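Annex B.
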Amino acid sequence: MARDLNLNSMAHFEAVARLGGISRASGELQVSASAVSQQIRLLEQQLGVKLFHREKRHLRLTIDGERLFQTTSQAFQSIREVRAAIVRQRESFNLLIRVSPSFGVRWLAPRLIEFVRQYPNWDLRVDATPSFSEFETEIIDLDLRYGEGGWSGLYSQCVVHDLILPMCSPAYLEELRSISPDPRVQLARARLIDSVKAYFRWDYWLPRNGVQGVTMSYPYRFDRSSMSVQLAKDGGGVILESTTLAFEELRRGELVPLSTEFETIEFPAYWLVCPARQMGRRSVKLFSNWVEGVGSRDTDVARVWLQERGHRMRFERRAGFSDPDGSMEGA
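LysR family transcriptional regulator: predicted structure tokens.
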């Protein structure tokens, strides 16, 4: 007998019993009241018992009806909960990202609200650490890495270009200009702040820009670019840093370019990195497209901002560069 029970009739019965009437059940089920009554009669015929006492315009469960309702109520509630969970899972995405600390705090975090507004149902976790992911042993969906790209065995896609130039606070620039109007002399006498994990550092940049007489013994060295930017903003010296990390300070005038005489270096700096198989996942692909679009937009904005102020651009990649400790943070 149980194999022959009509599940549609059971659903109609459960709705009538739960809501206390045929009219309410018909409204929830979006069928006519006569259709509900017909399903109840069909179920009673199948079971061979009465499920309701019919008292004028009211229905009251019989003992058999009570027993059936307890079971069907639990069953259909479980079905509704499972259905809701499936819908939530279908409409949401889970993504675990690893990102270098300074890049995560200074660039990614202020832009995540754009992502949240576009994809409000995502479950997103960001792990900020300078260490690269070991994808075969760690549960990480993708890295946002700083470097030159081309990591062996991994898919890599550049998402943000860096624009590199010397910067300092307006007050410190005035101090340097009181020493000499020549920006090369200014740099030779300046306090240079070294971001030790940056791709372009002073020891590479200075001789290529005709700056002589620098001892290369930096008074301030940091392994976090965010600390270098903060000290420069506070008047502590000159940084060779990127607009990716310091553009808001430039735009607000808290940092200023040292001189338009030096070309701004542009290079592909931040990469989305993961095993190639991950790119088949819709969540990874959507995030990849989003971060690449935002990165390209922001690079264009910074490039135009600098060009309008007389800065020239030069695309450059350091030939033969390798990171000695394999954990270049730079940001």
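Residues 98-331 form a domain with the D-Maltodextrin-Binding Protein; domain 2 fold (CATH 3.40.190.290). The chain has two domains: 2-91, 98-331. Further annotation is deferred to the next reporting cycle.
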